[in-house]
Write a structure and sequence with these properties.
By secondary structure, the protein is α/β, with parallel strands linked by helices. The protein is built from nine helices and five strands, in the order ααααβαβαβαβαβα.
């Protein structure tokens, strides 16, 4: 059962008002009503946080606002996550190693993607923020993930995504996994230039494309821009 518009509006208001307590109340109410918590997370809490991130990028709100909003979403997510997992496959759809690339301490976008993928049935290994390229490679060798996802929120840190691609090849493990890049300054052209498999515009886009590239037999079509790009790059 989908949550009512009223419940979704309450979730949106709780995030906009940085109200952790209200967010938890809404999450608990959703559990008691037996509504689709994944839908509420995506269309209520996460959608609002994504909107606020855009406002932050445009200079309309500031970092303390983003942190407070993220804390409200995190509080609600912790309550609803167990229920959301009940709708996920019994067996993991795959292992995703992700983190914000070295030199960058932004975590909002990464956290939304991680939660969305976890809800969708993926096992997540979150390395956090300001993660050195060497750590990505070491953890990739240790955990053998199906995909590595990196976020860069500043143009000066994007080059580390290129360095990671090179380092994975040098370590001899690039061919056995997929890579995804995302972040405000990141573009499909950048993904193509460095040789990444996927460009993720936002959390929903990331989940859709990861499902497409990892489970192509379950997708009716794999939407790929064929203009000036190799077929293996999922844009």
């Amino acid at each position: 059962m989908l949550p009512t518009k009223e419940l979704i509006d309450q979730a949106i208001e709780a995030v906009l008002n940085f109200n952790d307590e209200k967010a938890c109340e809404i999450a608990q109410e959703a559990l008691e009503l037996g509504v689709d918590t994944q839908y509420l997370l995506e269309h209520g809490f996460h959608a609002t946080l994504a909107l606020m991130k855009n406002m932050f990028d445009e200079g309309k709100i500031y970092l303390p606002h983003m942190i407070a909003a993220a804390e409200a979403v995190e509080a609600a997510t912790k309550i609803m996550m167990p229920a959301s997992k009940e709708n996920a496959p019994v067996n993991s759809k795959g292992v995703v190693l992700l983190g914000t690339i070295e030199g960058d301490i932004h975590s909002i976008g990464k956290d939304i993607v991680a939660t969305s993928l976890q809800i969708d049935g993926y096992e997540i290994i979150d390395l956090g923020v300001d993660v050195p390229v060497e750590t990505f490679v070491e953890m990739a060798i240790k955990f053998n993930p199906d995909l590595i996802a990196t976020s860069a929120l500043m143009t000066i840190t994007m080059t580390n995504q290129l360095t990671l691609e090179k380092s994975l090849r040098e370590a001899g493990i690039r061919d056995r996994l997929k890579t995804m890049v995302g972040g405000t300054p990141v573009t499909p052209e950048w993904a193509m230039e460095i040789g990444a498999d996927i460009y993720g515009a936002d959390a929903s886009d990331a989940v859709r494309k990861i499902n497409s590239i990892m489970w192509p037999e379950k997708e009716e079509t794999l939407i790929i821009s064929k203009k000036n790009c190799p077929e293996h790059v999922c844009y």
